[in-house]
Design a protein that fits this description.
2 domains, mainly alpha, three-stranded antiparallel sheet
Length: 118
């Protein structure tokens, strides 16, 4: 009998949170600096509630922090917190090494074939 283990939700897992292209685009935008919600929402062809849902997922995955503007408590400011991405980067690095090794092997193979045909 096949039993699937419960999977974490995107809201708690940085891997799943960054799987969505819109959330990656939000993170890319926040790399430029702290950004008010209105400015973030205007940057995307989505409704404000849709952007808010994406930001909630990123907050719950601890990739984004929310604060209130001291002058206008209604205005929310978002800041990138890249620390949870360390696990994602470490995982991707393993694939980088894999591909670099395979490409080096392919290069050696092509060079050997080229020398045989000279």
């Amino acid at each position: 009998m096949y039993w699937e283990m419960p999977r974490p939700s995107a809201a708690s897992d940085p891997f799943l949170a960054v799987a969505d292209p819109t959330r990656r685009a939000i993170l890319d935008r926040l790399r430029r600096g702290d950004t008010p919600f209105a400015e973030l929402a205007a940057a995307f062809d989505l409704s404000a509630p849709a952007v808010s849902r994406h930001l909630r997922v990123l907050r719950e995955a601890r990739l984004v922090q929310e604060s209130r503007d001291g002058r206008d408590a209604r205005q929310r400011i978002y800041r990138l917190d890249p620390a949870p991405l360390r696990d994602v980067v470490a995982w991707a690095r393993g694939y980088q090494q894999f591909w670099e090794g395979n490409l080096a092997s392919l290069k050696r193979h092509a060079e050997r074939r080229s020398r045989r045909h000279e």
